[in-house]
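My current task is to audit a protein record that another person submitted. I need someone to confirm that the token line plausibly describes how this chain folds. Take the sequence as given and treat only the tokens as open to question. This is what I was given:
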Amino acid sequence: MKALVTGFDPFGGEVVNPSLEAVRRLPARIGELIVVTQRLPAAFAASLPELYAAIEREDPDIVLCTGEAGSRTELSPERVAINVQDARIPDNEGAQPVDVKVAEDGPAAYFTTLPIKAAVLAMRQAGLPVAVSNSAGTFVCNHVFYGLMHYAATRKARFRGGFMHVPYLPEQAANHPKAPSMAVETIARGIEILLAVAAERSTDLVVAEGAVS
């Protein structure tokens, strides 16, 4: 089996992105699972072509995209992606869409097909702060999450896919008074556990109950 894991470039004036730094620390294998990684631009227009090219190149069984959410206090596997782009700040290419669909022909939302409840339990048992999130926002992270699941639905792809938000790194929080943070090693460990749980449950690949498709 193979997993494709993505992290974003820094954005919004930051010099690092915790998702990318954690992805860079992943091992090449987790048990029998091969792990490959991809850096994604923090930009609406450029991110999905990079993601789709990596999927077509690697033909993964699992796709996990990760991104920064500086206000989060814990690892946040996302339940649902919504069909909207509504940017509070410009992306790295200067784009700032407001109330624009990710996919004109797409449904209102898609649910993750990763076993996020089981992964949350496993992470908590490992001593990691984590909780399921019901909002991936409306910036590039949600854009990529929705685009990933739309690709899977429209091309009948066999991979299990989803998204996890991660907090700031301590060096970022130092510049944001009272902001929460998490060590990069802890973030990477959470990603590893999520991937391991998804690999263990690979035979249960189904669209989440209640998913819009």
